[in-house]
Amino acid sequence: MSIDLGGAMPHPHIMKRRWPVLVAAGATLAGAVACSSGAASGGRSGGSGSLACRDGRILVGIAKADSGFASFFDVAGKRGLEVAVQEINARGGVKGCKIQTIAGDTKSDPAIAAQVARSLITKGAQILVVADDFDTGVAAARIGQREGLLTLSLAASSTVFGKAVGDRFFSGGITTTELGLGQARYALDRKWTSTFQVLDPGLAYFTEQDAAYRRLYEGGGGKVGGVDRVDSLGGQSDFSSTISKIKAARPDVVQALAVFPAVGTFVKQLRAAGVDTPVLGNITLQTRELPKLVGAGRADDIYYAAQVYFDGAGTDPKTDPAIATFAKTYEKMFGHFPEQANAPGAYQTFLAIDTALQRKDVTDAASAAKAIREQRGLKVPGGTLDQWKDGYAVWSPTIVGLEGGRFTSVTAYNATSLRSGAA
């Protein structure tokens, strides 16, 4: 059940500014705790941070963008959350109490996000969900923390978000550390010992992956032999100069760290130039639009690290059946296949948080936060939540491949092992 406080529908677009921390893939919130029949309908029953059932519901406030540059990511995450809410409610809710959501459009503006957060809390929100990005979500998250609410970012990848907010905040997207280490481990496993890097330095999302990649890759004997900086956020569409450098360098693998659709345009031009070197990247390549852009006949030897493999749902039997079901439900609810990785990522993390909130000892934000921090090696549809650290989720990454124009699940890595190997 959802109440919408307003906002326009989003459309795909290139982000119009440089985010210090880009959103990655996915996270979630959850509803919470024991139903109590005598709760009042207005205000927070049971005191600040209470997760008591009120009028048969637990109210989750969603302060995310339905409009503006962040909406493509935020809406996908919100929809993934809604699928999870429906699933949890269908099996009885949280300890018999149904989850209800109430939403407000932050318009991709941090100042407006703070106002929306206050409004949602005034309307009785017991859990607050904020934008899938540090910059656009931190102001709203601090409101939730200050008011004592369990506060969540569905898919932010930042490792500093939690430290900047407080002990009742959690961000659930796979981090740049796991994405970078996963790429490095896969490159070493394939014996790709020389890398040419195509890097947009305007996003910490990419520069942080670069640092993690080099730490494990060069420590394992690999060498980043060339780097060409591009401006994917600025809409760069001609990569001929970069491709000429790649031809001259003749690397074992090309690492593409740029946003879509520019990164897809780069791969298209690379293949059109006759360069069949494997391409390695991250979630910015994780869209069904990629093979359409590159061309099915040329969408080959493309690999990327991700939180969850959902790309092959309905076409690849390797897809986790629960994720395939998620994709079908998503399409039924919203009219199309999940457009972006925040959707299944939000769904995954929602179920992880829900596992903690189902505990009998969880009655408020503080006890919920304690239960969340205690999670280790938690299996959820399509992946494993290794642990929580400093308020962010550590996911074991999966490697997805495009081979012969078709998506496939290639392998998965344990996050703890990756981090220890890169130490």
UniProtKB/TrEMBL annotation:
InterPro entries: BCAA_transport, Leu-bd, Peripla_BP_I. The keyword Signal applies. Signal peptide: none annotated. Coiled coil: none annotated. It comes from the Bacteria. Keywords: Signal. Gene3D superfamilies: 3.40.50.2300. Residues 60-388 form the Leucine-binding protein domain. Belongs to the leucine-binding protein family. This is ABC transporter substrate-binding protein. It comes from Actinomadura litoris.
